[in-house]
């Protein structure tokens, strides 16, 4: 009957909650910053940024930055705007 397995994944993802720090890390990555650059901006270690990214990947059930950004945007967890956070240089 129908496609219960296909909808089950969407139901699980709808309940995803990212911490404010995870959103900040993902937003900096979305702006094109490397893990080290994000760490410098947040005044934390690169290891801390990578730890938060690993948590994001796990929560979103993805394997890399591109997938994480697309899924987070699709779920409305971060804004999708190619100019998000960039100055008008």
Structural summary, described in words:
It contains five helices and no strands. The chain is an all-alpha fold and 89 residues long. It has a domain at 16-74: Orthogonal Bundle (Arc Repressor Mutant, subunit A).
Structural classification? mainly alpha
How many distinct helices? 5
Write the CATH architecture name of the domain at 16-74. Orthogonal Bundle
Q: Which parts are unreliable, with pLDDT below 50 for 5 consecutive residues or more?
A: 1-12
| Cα gyration radius (Å) | 14 Å
- CATH T-level fold name of the domain at 16-74: Arc Repressor Mutant, subunit A
Percent range of helical residues:
55-70%
Intertermini distance = 54 Å
Q: Please trace the helix and strand order, writing H or E for each element.
A: HHHHH
State the shape.
globular
Q: What's the name of the CATH homologous superfamily of the domain at 16-74?
A: Winged helix-like DNA-binding domain superfamily/Winged helix DNA-binding domain
How many extended strands?
Answer: 0
Largest sheet: none
Strand content: under 5%
Text of the CATH class of the domain at 16-74 = Mainly Alpha
What's this entry about, in short?
By secondary structure, the chain is mostly helical. Helix content is 62%, strand content 0%. The chain has a domain at 16-74: Orthogonal Bundle (Arc Repressor Mutant, subunit A).
């Amino acid at each position: 009957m129908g496609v219960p397995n296909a909808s089950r994944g969407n139901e699980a993802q709808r309940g995803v909650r990212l911490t404010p720090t995870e959103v900040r890390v993902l937003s900096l990555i979305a702006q094109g910053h490397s893990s080290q650059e994000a760490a410098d901006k947040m005044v934390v270690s690169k290891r801390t940024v990578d730890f938060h990214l690993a948590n994001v990947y796990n929560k979103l059930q993805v394997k890399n930055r591109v997938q994480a950004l697309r899924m987070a945007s699709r779920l409305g967890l971060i804004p999708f705007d190619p100019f998000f956070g960039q100055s008008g240089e």
